[in-house]
Specification:
Elements (H helix, E strand, L loop, with lengths): L2 H4 L9 H9 L1 H25 L4 H9 L1 H24 L3 H9 L10 H4 L8 H21 L3 H27 L14 H4 L6 H10 L11 H13 L2 H28 L2 H12 L5 H4 L4 H16 L3 H12 L9 H13 L6 H9 L2 H14 L4 H4 L11 H14 L3 H27 L2 H15 L7 H6 L2 H10 L3 H23 L6
């Protein structure tokens, strides 16, 4: 038997513990096992604390959570090392050792147990900090080996950190607009991200649906309600959801553009352009923009990868986030038919996937039917914001009328901003007719027509933010330095201005 055969890595038939000991050595194995032990003890403690009524019948089950934590940590370590080795070409041992460091944040889960006699810390904040640190360390490790992760992470950080500083300085040095305003928190660093519509999402997460807030779809406030139980603040929960969703959205957008154009430079420009778009402030605020962007881009990515069922599930979440999510049904159908014409057989996964897209909206309609007897109440309540169904040109005409008859310069400015952004969206639609794939162009067309048909251009600059085909086009044209410079020169100053205005309670979109 050769030395290579004798010392070959253990197969999956051997015990997990023995295999990892052989591959990584005792120190990394002990580190990950200790992290798993912390995870198991924390899960046991949390279950005991919150399942008092069930303790008599579930003592053994709850105790099993302790060794289960170790098994989960070791299995996750092994699986991710295999994945990392496959994606990057590094050895399995190197991948294991590199990933060992990402388990260190789990040791923070000992804190609630260690400080239990003093009752100075609760589980929720510890969970959030642990997950955040784990994610940060995981991304840092992955960024060393993966160009996509590296470029997305750098773009995310260099565009988000300045916005945080600008928003805080704007709120501190200038102060909020005159009048009495709702405050999501007494902490200025947090509350600057909880303006305008954020109030509705936080109120829904806190006390459920009532009145005009039924206009807002349920997935985002539901996530706030769930995460808020751990953070103790729905505002903090919203910031976590929005910013985590933005990162995932940029990651999927990069992969989608790279899939379509086979050019990493174009993909990098695309995620940068959308990150510095003038209304990109809403990506980090307690708004649905980042979640909806992530879900729509991810659904398109899985559609193009022909992972029909996964695309449908993600599409269902999108239609539970905003009504425009149901529009994914159309590009899904276009791509499904194109695949069928190219010889791909019709499968139950593809049929189920396309049928799942409107499921999120239909579920909310069913809820409203039970709650108020009107499944379309989310649409009917739009009259509160002076919106009603009308031909698209009515919205443009109303905006021009308001500009020509306005008595205040602020009113002229607001209407002009909305009109200019609407014109830019329509221009991009026209120029993209030949440049974009049919499914992208049709989705863009429908996403512009729907808000234009509400008799008002209100929020159009914000709606443009999630129209990702716009940024695909700009990234393609951005190969020319003059176009790239024009996009950056247009976006960055307005993004800074809009950030200050938003932080000071001025309406943007």
């Amino acid at each position: 038997m050769s030395a290579r055969t004798k010392h070959a890595p253990p197969t999956s038939v051997r015990p997990l513990f023995q295999g990892l000991l052989y591959a990584a050595g005792p120190a990394p194995l002990a580190g990950v096992a200790g992290a798993g032990l912390a995870l198991g003890f924390f899960a046991w403690y949390a279950a005991v604390s919150h399942l008092h009524a069930l303790l008599a019948v579930t003592d053994l089950v709850l105790l099993s959570l302790i060794p289960l934590g170790i098994v989960v940590a070791l299995a996750a370590w092994q699986w991710y090392a295999n994945y990392l080795s496959w994606r990057t070409g590094i050895s399995h041992r190197t991948a294991l050792i590199l990933d060992t460091w990402t388990f260190l944040p789990l040791y923070l889960l000992w804190l609630p147990l260690a400080l239990l006699p003093f009752r100075v810390i609760s589980e929720g904040p510890v969970v959030i900090v642990t997950i955040a640190l784990w994610g940060a360390v995981k991304l840092a490790a992955a960024a060393r080996l993966n160009q996509t992760i590296r470029e997305v992470t750098v773009t995310y950080l260099v565009t988000r950190i300045p916005l945080i500083i600008i928003a805080l300085l704007g709120a501190t040095l200038i102060g909020q607009r005159a009048g009495t305003h709702w405050a999501a928190s007494h902490d200025l660093l947090l509350t600057v991200w909880g303006r305008w519509d954020a109030q509705h999402y936080i109120e829904i997460a806190t006390s459920g649906y009532h009145g005009t807030n039924m206009a807002f779809f349920p997935l985002y406030p539901l996530l706030l309600a769930i995460l808020g139980k751990f953070t103790g603040s729905h505002l903090v929960a919203g910031l976590i959801v929005s910013n985590a969703a933005l990162y995932l959205g940029l990651l999927f957008f990069y992969k989608l553009v790279e899939h379509e154009l086979r050019d990493r430079r174009v993909a990098h420009r695309a995620i940068f352009y959308v990150s510095v778009f003038p209304t990109a402030i809403f990506f980090s605020a307690v708004y649905t923009e980042s979640l909806f962007f992530a879900l729509t881009v991810a659904s398109f990515y899985y559609i193009r990868e022909r992972k029909w069922l996964l695309a449908g599930i993600v599409g269902a979440f999108a239609s539970a986030t905003r009504v425009e999510g149901v529009l994914l049904f159309v590009p899904f159908a276009i791509e499904w038919w194109a695949a069928h014409r190219n010889g791909e057989p019709i499968s139950w996964r593809s049929v189920l996937g396309i049928g799942l897209v409107p499921a999120g909206m239909l579920a909310y309609m069913g809820y409203l039917w039970v709650l108020v007897g009107d499944p379309l109440y989310f649409s009917h309540v739009q009259t509160h914001w002076h919106r009603h169904l009308a031909p698209p040109w009515v919205s443009v005409g109303n905006s021009i009328h308001l500009i020509t008859h306005a008595h205040l310069p602020q009113s002229i400015a607001y209407q002009s901003i909305e009109l200019v952004f609407t014109a830019l969206m329509i221009a991009m639609l026209a120029f993209g007719f030949r440049a974009l794939r049919t499914s992208y162009w049709v989705y863009m067309l429908l996403s512009i027509i729907i808000p234009l048909s509400t008799s008002s251009l209100m929020s159009m600059p914000r709606f443009a933010l999630v129209l990702f085909p716009i940024f695909m086009l700009l990234a393609i044209w951005g190969r020319r330095p003059v176009v790239n410079n024009a996009v950056v020169a247009f976006s960055l100053p307005l993004l800074g201005l809009f950030t200050v205005l938003f932080a000071d309670w001025y309406w943007i979109a």
